[in-house]
Every structure is written in structure tokens, then in C-alpha cells.
């Protein structure tokens, strides 16, 4: 269960990073 939470957290960070990249562009 812990790993699952980390996976979701990492995915969320990736999505946020992508959004930041789009905003910066």
C-alpha cells in the first residue's frame, strides 16, 4: 500500500512538472 501511495505521488509530481513546463513555454 505504501508503494502504491508513492507511485501516485510521483505521478502527481510528474503531471505538475509537465504543467509547469507548459506554463513556462
Q: What do you see in this structure?
A:
The protein has 25 residues and is mainly α. The protein has 1 helix and no strands. It is 92% helix and 0% strand. The longest helix is centred in the middle third of the chain and has 23 residues. The N and C termini lie far apart (37 Å).
* Secondary structure: helix percent: over 70%
Query: What's the end-to-end separation, in Å?
Result: 37 Å
Which strand-content bin applies to the residues?
under 5%
Number of helices: 1
Q: What is the makeup of the main sheet? A: none
What is the total tally of β strands? 0
Helix and strand run? H
Would you identify the regions where 5 or more consecutive residues have pLDDT less than 50?
A: none
Q: What's the mean pLDDT score? A: 87
Shape: rod-shaped
Overall SS class: mainly alpha
Kindly provide the radius of gyration, computed on alpha-carbon positions and rounded to a whole number of angstroms: 11 Å
Q: What's the gist of this structure?
A:
This protein has one helix at residues 2-24.
SSE order and pairing:
Layout lengths: L1 H23 L1
Amino acid at each position: 500500500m505504501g508503494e502504491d501511495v508513492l507511485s501516485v505521488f510521483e505521478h502527481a509530481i510528474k503531471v505538475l512538472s509537465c504543467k509547469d513546463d507548459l506554463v513556462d513555454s
